[in-house]
Write a structure and sequence with these properties.
Elements: H1 3-11, H2 17-71, H3 81-95, H4 99-123, H5 128-153, H6 157-184, H7 189-257
Length: 258
């Protein structure tokens, strides 16, 4: 067959309907299984990835919670102490939304510093570096507590007085306990006495605030009492005046009738 004849047949070649249908079915038979197989494989792979990610996230969360819980018992100098003060305590500060909650947490945080100091002193683990670290944190936390109580005083004066009283009592109790430990532990006695100066200064500062708040409460109560007395005096004096007025009016009416 010549080239021209082949070219002519190629241009005019046409498949019959049966051939077209057969070719279509053949193509579909090859496409469907591979598509289903690919979709199933992709879905299964996606599920595995999600499952692994979920397990990993849960593991990290559990580890984080465990470390956070363990950090609550850490002392200055421990590895987890940074997490205790920079993570756990900051979170508790953020969630203290009201002024009362902020003041309560500030008082509790100061008590935590005192308890840490006492535990280190009793164990004899107090050195120069830890002493300075504790003294600095104790001073900062006590100042924060004073500020929080001062802010609370503007809204709830009685609650602020109670918070300052509890903080002062805690400082005085721990002061006495530290003095006792210093007498029993000569190896850390000098370290304790240095921190005791800070504790005593902060105790006096808190005591002054407590006395100031209590004085304001007493003055406010006096003002209320004076106002009540004035109101009572005004009401009692107004009654005779009304009676006299009625008597004068009655006598005038009687004279007019005569």
């Amino acid at each position: 067959m010549k080239y021209k004849d082949m070219q002519f047949h190629m241009k005019h070649a046409v498949l019959t309907p049966e051939e077209k249908n057969s070719l279509r079915q053949e193509l579909l038979s090859h496409m469907r299984p591979s598509h289903v197989e690919y979709s199933s494989f992709a879905y299964a792979r996606f599920l595995r990835v999600v499952r692994v990610a979920a397990v990993g996230f849960a593991s990290v969360a559990l580890v984080g919670v465990g470390i956070s819980y363990a950090a609550e018992h850490a002392l200055p100098g421990d590895v987890l102490y940074v997490m205790k003060v920079d993570v756990n305590e900051r979170v508790r500060t953020w969630v203290a939304l009201s002024r009362q909650a902020e003041a309560e947490w500030s008082v509790a945080r100061t008590m935590r510093r005192l308890e840490e100091l006492e535990r280190l002193a009793v164990a004899g683990d107090l050195n120069d570096a830890l002493r300075d670290q504790i003294a600095t944190r104790l001073e900062q936390d006590t100042e924060e507590a004073n500020k929080a109580i001062g802010s609370l005083k503007k809204e709830q004066m009685v609650v602020a007085a109670d918070a300052s009283s509890r903080l002062e009592s805690s400082l005085r109790v721990h002061e006495r306990m530290l003095v006792q430990v210093a007498e029993e532990r000569a190896d850390v006695s000098s370290q304790i006495h240095v921190i005791l100066d800070t504790v005593r200064k902060k105790t006096e500062s808190v005591s002054e605030m407590r006395q100031e708040i209590e004085k304001e409460i007493a003055d406010a109560q006096k003002d209320v009492s004076v106002k009540e007395v004035i109101t009572e005096d005004t009401s009692t004096t107004s009654v005779p005046l009304l009676e006299e007025t009625h008597e004068e009016t009655g006598s005038k009416e009687a004279k007019n009738e005569i």
